[in-house]
Amino acid sequence: MMVSFMRCYKKSKLAIRFTCALRMVLLLLVMLVLSTTAQADGSIQIKYVSLDAVQEGYELNVDAEIILNPVLEQALEKGVILYFRTKFSLFEPRWYWFDKEVAVSKLRIGLRYSALTRQYRLSRELWSQNFDTLDEALEILSQLRGRPASVDITHELKPGVDYTATLRMWLDLTRLPKPFQIETFGSSEWNLTSKTLEWQTRLPLSTQNLYETGGL
């Protein structure tokens, strides 16, 4: 009886180990599928936001992750310019009417591919830069720093007020050529946008982290 019990005990331990290993493999497969799906669909995820008090007013800094799906990559290769927009707003709460937008930061950056030079190019207003790979271009596109994302104060800002801040990044479909605008209507493959972040904040006296991945 003792020998039979030991055999059953050893088989039971082996079964438990096998089950645990199988669960681990299945978990890794699920994570891989989810990651592959995100890559295929494309996404914009805002990871970090800070508001800096500077001599001229306030500056906004944003770190994000932008992933293009195959449809958008093919559009780039065909010569289509993809314009990405970022908008940050501060709203003053008003109990008697709609909240008033008192500060705003808007930025639009174009991403294009040149078949002649085989390079990707980012451009906005008087600034432009070339990149050898799409990953390099997307990395810079995902990082907004200093003056290009400065905050325009539209109304008097008040200390001690809890303002509502919002931030969103998205692919601007209105800047696409007309034929592509028709093609993208109702298409999820072209609907590339981050979630609209919204939180309460007060004006900083120095650099203030507003958001980091994991929550506000």
Provide key terms for this protein.
single chain, 216 residues, alpha+beta, 2 domains, 4-stranded antiparallel beta sheet, globular, disordered N terminus
Describe the protein in words.
The protein is an alpha+beta fold and 216 residues long. It folds into 2 domains: 1-33; 40-212, no CATH class. Helices cover 29% and strands 38% of the residues. The chain is built from 4 helices and 11 strands; from the N terminus they run αββαββββαβββαββ. The protein has helices at 2-41, 70-77, 134-141, 178-184, and strands at residues 43-54, 57-67, 82-92, 100-114, 119-124, 127-131, 143-144, 152-153, 163-171, 197-201, 208-212. Strands 3, 4, 5, 6, 8, 9 and 10 form a 7-stranded antiparallel β-sheet that branches. A 4-stranded antiparallel β-sheet has the order 7-2-1-11. A hairpin with a 2-residue loop joins strand 5 and strand 6. The radius of gyration is 24 Å and the shape is globular.
> How many strands, what sense, and barrel or not for the largest sheet?
7 strands, antiparallel
User: Shape from CA axes?
Assistant: globular
Counting structural domains, the number is 2
Cα-to-Cα separation, first versus last residue: 62 Å
Question: In percent, how helical is the residue content?
Answer: 25-40%
Counting DSSP H or I runs of 4 or more residues, the number of helices is 4
What is the oligomeric state here? single chain
**Alpha-beta content class:** alpha+beta
State Rg: 24 Å
